[in-house]
Amino acid sequence: MPACRECGKDNAEGMAFCGYCAAPLAKPAGNPISSPSIRGPSSQPKLFKPEIRTPVIHSPGPPPPSNGDEDKGKGGFQLIPWSELSPAQRAGRSIAAVVGLILILFLVRVMWRSVGGARIGSSASAPSAESSGAAITEGDRKDGIESLCKVFQIYGLPKNDHDATEAARNAGELFKLAGNQSRERSAYILTTIVQEFRSRKLSQSDCAEAGAPIATTQDSTDN
Fold first, then answer.
1. Bridge-partner residues for 3, per DSSP?
2. Taking each helix axis from N to C terminus, what angle separates 183-198 and 138-155, rounded to the nearest 10 degrees?
3. What is the pLDDT averaged over residues 30-35?
4. DSSP secondary structure letter of residue 21
5. Looking at the predicted structure, is the pLDDT value of residue 159 above 90?
6. Which one of 110, 146, 183, 196 is CB 3.0 to 4.6 Å from 202, fit for a cystine?
């Protein structure tokens, strides 16, 4: 128990001042005044310094050499040789070739017929100036009316310019005019006469006079 230096009274442990005279009590020698410890430079914590790295940009180099065998399987169309095909593949390729040949022949035929029809139509609708310059004789008119009326017996009287052109073309192909007329001359005669039927200058009575009357049922249908 520490004793007060002023009044000599004993005080309890842990008291800083005397309980009797309030004088400061002396601290025991075994408990020196604590002072903040002084640390040397080695005891201070080290600061972390972040490492800054410069980014490295890699420039693209030349592409690696390609192998021809590898490129073949990556894409594109490759025709397999006939010797490497299986029997089923050979049969399929043969069928495809036959179908392609048939389509080509069909297209050629359609084009040929269209060209031929255009030539026939132009010859019937636009005869040459030399053949159209000569006048139509009575014999030419009679033969033309008879030939056209035979066509009218099958297809009827023309109702428009297209029917008239077709009638003149059919008459020129099916019947031959007297006097061994040329094809251009016959086309001119028949085209002229069929236009007269078209304009009502000629009628079914003229067919009857020419010896090729049109049936009554056909006349009533056309009218």
1. 10
2. 70
3. 49
4. T
5. no
6. 196
Q: How many domains does the chain have?
A: 1
Tokens at 45, concatenated:
């914590």
- What dihedral do alpha carbons 27, 30, 33, 36 form, nearest 10°? -160
**Of 6-15, 69-78, 211-220, which has the strongest mean pLDDT?**
6-15
CA dist., res. 84 & res. 94, Å (int): 15
Q: State the DSSP code for 93.
A: H
- Positive/negative CA dihedral, 97, 98, 99, 100: positive
In a domain, 206, yes or no: yes
User: What's the one-letter identity of residue 219?
Assistant: D
For residue 10, give the 3-state DSSP assignment: strand
**Residue 167 within any structural domain of the chain:** yes
Q: What is the mean pLDDT of the chain?
A: 74
* Residue range of the domain that includes 216: 129-222
Tell whether 108 is covered by a domain: no
Best mean pLDDT range from 1-15, 36-50, 143-157:
143-157
CA 38 from centre of chain: 88
| Predicted pLDDT at 18 | 85
Q: What is the pTM of this model?
A: 0.39
Tell me if 185 is assigned to some domain: yes
Whether the CB-CB separation of 157 and 197 falls below 8 Å is answered with yes
Kindly give the residue spans of alpha helices, DSSP state H, lying in 53-128: 68-72, 87-125
